[in-house]
Amino acid sequence: MAITVTNQKPAVLDALHTISCTGDYDPMPAIQQTLVDPLLQPLNPNAPASITDAQGADLTGHISDLFLSCLGDTLNVTSEQTVKEVLGQTLINFDQGTRLPVAELFAVQAAQQNKMPAPSPRVLYTAQADVLPAAKALLAGSGEASAFFASVAYTFHPDTLGFWFQSSAAFDGFKTWLSQQTQTMASALPPATTKLLNDFTALSLKGLTESLLVRKDDSDANDEHSFARVLVHMLMNYVEQQRARASQQNTAMDAGVLPFTIGELFCPRSLVLVNVEAHARANPAKITGEWNLINQSLASPVKVVSNTSLSKLTSLPRAAARAAALGASQQPGQPGSRSAQVAFRKQPPSKLDLFSDITRVLRRMGKVAKSHNIFRTTAATFLKANRRNPDDFNKPGRITSVQYMPDLHIYIDTSGSISEENYQEAVMMLIRIAKKLNVNLYFNSFSHFLSQEVMLRTENKSAAQIWKEFRRIPKVSGGTEYTQIWQYINASRTRQRRLSLMVTDFDWLPPSKRQDHPKNLYYAPCSARDWSSMVDLAKRYADSMKHIDPSVRQRLLGMVV
Fold first, then answer.
1. Is 170 helix (H, G, I), strand (E, B) or coil?
2. Which candidate, 528, 522, 526, 535, places its Cα nearest to that of 485?
């Protein structure tokens, strides 16, 4: 879609907003003022700015609707592309070709402002190379707050609203100011809000972060003077005052906003308070562990928000981590690829095509310490006597070494769009591959539910016998949901080491928010039915996964060449 922008003054979006904590909760005026109005400010005040699409349709009055369409539960590819084109032509600092979703536009803007390349399989951001130097520069007064924000956002992509403070002393200064402000409005505050605010002032920010749950969902805690509304309102007001003071006195700010995602900026379910000084003095592993813990907590399906006591975001995983004495996990890498140049097959893959692709991936993954996938090799060696002529030192012996390839774990789509014929075809294909590889299989069926894990022994059994065992395994049915499989794999180090293969028709769209995609999860088509439709669905899935795994096309086994 070609967007035409006329008479618009190039803008820089400011995340600061002050939604009132009184009356009905309505974030739309703040969205209009923060996101839309700057894009429509005319260059020539005597004529309005206008934005039109390729057909000449006027989009000027629909910008807010386009933004909202990018914030749904699933990614809207068309709206994402349109909004990125609009932002690319209206903002001073924006990368129109970014793989990140529109929800992370403030991170993209901050990165462009600081000339930071977009994250990709070949451009990785880390705590050591990016977050730590940016924190040190901000603490020393030689760096910009936007650079620190962009480095954290590009390294960890947390789906939350953050506020940074220069140090624990700066946070104490905010708490003192907050106490003074709440005293003046004490008569209007409900007792529950007063108690939660008092508990908040008892918090310490001596560590890297402090994080709170403030809402169960977007409809929760929106009453007048609720704790969630009052706290965010006060934080924004404090940052606004800090900005005014710094401008008047020509001094550095000691607090600011970290608008990681748009949805959380205007209706946050969680808040993360960040100590810049602690980040500047911490080691990279500690920083990585802290933010991985935050992301793990944000991805947890169970969140309990109390009306009577502060709900800390990371309390449960921190307790589990202490109990299990687990160290910080290393962030999984992403395979380098040129996904945009990958071409899809024009014909369905044969059994040999899939076998070749699976074998290639197994070899790339390398050997493991133990598995059901045993690989024996025999070699000649003079270190061992010849079995037939043990006294002849000129004849080598034979030595057999046992190595283990990663186990194979199959997840078969059994949702309503998959017929019994498709299911049988997919299973028989996998049985033949397993027989050729001479390995056992771990197996789950899935829809919007995930079946219990089963290990199927294929060695020394005919295909008919294995199929009979498959048929005895109950399979789930219903809708389609991939993220449950991602979470299931990521929850176990053992499953993370397996080659996981999802057999599906690709009729699913990923969430608009980032989630961790398992490093060793690949995809295969469930059957050869209507191959052109299957390819179209796979292309749609790959295009909508750019913000989660931009190299996902390389994971489509049997589909790409």
1. helix
2. 522
Of 218, 197, 171, nearest to 310 (Cα)?
197
The model's confidence at residue 327, banded by pLDDT at 50, 70 and 90, is: very low
pTM > 0.90: yes or no = no
Contact 299, 487 (CB under 8 A): yes
Closest CA to 84 of 98, 74, 69: 98
CB 455, CB 390: distance < 8 Å: no
Tally Cβ neighbours within 10 Å of residue 513: 20
Residue 183, both tokens? 């005293």
Beta strands at 311-312 and 209-213: parallel, antiparallel or unpaired: antiparallel
* Residue pLDDT, tens place only, 489-517: 998 988 998 899 999 999 999 988 888 89
Q: Residues 382-403, buried b or exposed e (16+ Cβ, 10 A)? A: eeeebeeeeeeeeeebeeeeee
Expressed in percent and rounded to 5, the helix, strand and coil fractions of the chain are 45, 15, 40
Residue 225: burial class (beta carbons within 10 Å; 0-12, 13-18, 19+): middle
**CA dist., res. 552 & res. 293, Å (int):** 25
